[in-house]
Design brief:
Blueprint: E1 2-11, E2 14-19, H1 23-32, H2 37-46, H3 51-74, H4 81-93, H5 98-104, E3 112-118, H6 123-156, H7 166-191, E4 198-199, E5 217-222, H8 223-231, E6 233-234, E7 237-238, H9 240-250, H10 254-262
Parallel strand pairs: 1-3, 3-5, 4-5
Antiparallel strand pairs: 1-2, 6-7
Keywords: Membrane, Transmembrane, Transmembrane helix
Protein name: K+-H+ exchange-like protein
Transmembrane segments: 151-173
Length: 264
């Protein structure tokens, strides 16, 4: 499966790294995840895959349940207890780094990436920055993953209270999130490494077949993205309107991209 990555400077030394949203792929992945314990058991018992694959299936099943519960909170009536929990969750999620969200989007199904970037940027610099964020992710998210796992037994003790165990579910979500970001970091680092096959603008004509077998990353400079950056560039970085236009053009999540602008 191919993933389209959009890379561009957003404010000073802050660069945005984001993946274009492909709703059909999301729907396909969602439909393949078991929705009940019975379906999960049947799929695991009938699978001839390694234990690691079954563990990932179990993790996806739990994540699916958490997403359904979150959707239920989102639809709760205003002012209700569930609605207040949803508001608390939004405030907590606002603190999640955008780089973590980006790395989580690089799933194991991704076999190659198309990297779109402003034409004025050096292609080697773009790939170097991608390798850096991937390598840094393997270090940071491994550390935070083990840290979150160690917090699970402590937060599970709050289950004795007559209230929803929000600390436990938050730590459980952070454990899953760091694990996904770690796997995404490893996958991205593998795809954009020096040993992987690639195509660059200098090696092939613009009409080259980018779907050729064996190509793991393609660098694609964009004149359109370059123009959008110049239209909205100022002393404080790209304006919100410009970021919104770029997100519409390349199917990006505006809220996640804005986090790059405000990050330190």
């Amino acid at each position: 499966m191919r993933a389209r990555l959009i890379v561009f400077p957003i404010r000073g030394r802050n660069w945005c790294f984001s993946r274009s949203i492909d709703q059909s792929v999301l729907d396909s992945q969602y439909s393949q995840t078991p929705s009940t314990f019975k379906q999960l058991w049947i799929k695991i018992s009938s699978s001839e895959k390694a234990t690691d694959s079954n563990a990932e299936l179990l993790i996806d099943f739990v994540a699916n349940k958490m997403n359904r519960a979150w959707t239920g909170l989102e639809k709760a009536p205003p002012g209700s207890f569930k609605n207040k929990i949803h508001g608390l969750g939004l405030r907590l999620l606002a603190g999640v780094r955008p780089s973590e969200i980006f790395l989580k989007s690089i799933s194991k199904e991704v076999t190659n990436v198309e990297i779109t970037y402003p034409s004025s940027l050096n292609a080697r610099l773009v790939r170097r920055r991608l390798r850096h964020i991937a390598f840094r992710g393997t270090v940071i998210h491994k550390k935070y993953f083990y840290g979150s796992v160690s917090m699970l037994p402590l937060t599970s003790a709050f289950a004795v209270l007559p209230l929803p165990n929000i600390p436990f579910f938050w730590v459980l979500f952070r454990t899953y999130s760091h694990w996904r970001a770690l796997k995404g970091s490893e996958k991205l680092l593998q795809l954009v490494s020096d040993t992987s096959e690639s195509k660059t603008p200098n090696e092939n004509s613009e009409k080259a077949d980018h779907n050729s077998l064996g190509v793991q990353w393609v660098l694609q400079p964009s004149e359109e993205l370059e123009k959008q950056l110049h239209c909205g560039d100022d002393d404080d970085g790209l304006s919100k309107d410009t970021i919104s236009d770029i997100c519409k053009t390349y199917d990006l999540n505006t809220i996640d991209v804005l986090k790059y602008r405000n990050s330190v």
